[in-house]
Structure formats: structure tokens, C-alpha cells
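Hey,
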Amino acid sequence: MKLKIAEILGANEALTQLGELSLPISTSVKVARLQKKVGDEAAIHLELRNNLIKKYGKLSKEKQGQIEVPPNKIAEYLGELNELLTQEVDVDWPKLTLPEEGVNVKPNVLAALLDLIENKEGV
């Protein structure tokens, strides 16, 4: 399946939240394995995003230790960031099947995982 970088980054955050829930052991193992694969892929792209910040950013004079992108560079930075986030990556990750009962997951967490979750009917 193909996922955009933005989707991978969202799934990474959602899997972290899902990993905090009490799930059956078989589901927990699958979540942990998927979290590692997604996390590894997300780390690559977070490093690229950090490189963009270093490329365009300057140390803030008002906010000690923070890097800010100057107004005259913001369009270039956002253009490259958007290009990065919309890149598609071909991933071969197994889909998760979550238990239908006994687990409460917020809809925004599930929304970030829609491409990675399969229900018992295979949808």
C-alpha cells in the first residue's frame, strides 16, 4: 500500500496512543510490531524535516535556543515541507484487527489509522 509521509507521521502518533491501551496480548504484539515499523519510517522523515528547519531557520534573537524561519524564507520552506509531506512511500505493513469490545479508542486516533486497521469482515 502507498501512504503519504503526512499519513505515516499521523499514524505514528496514533499508534503511540493505541499502545497505551490495555489490549489482548495478540493485538498488543501486532500493535508493537507495527509501531516499530511505522516509527522507523517516521524517524527518517522527521530527520528530513529537521534538515529543512536547519536549512531555512535562524536562531531566534527573542526566544533563546529556538530556531525560526525568517519571513522572506517561509514560502520556500513551506513549499519544500509540503513536497516532503506529500511524498508517497510504498509500505508493506500488515493491517491490525482490533477487538470490537472492551477497548475504547478515540475517533481521531482511529482516523489516523484507517489505512492500517482491518475489521473482522476484512474491510
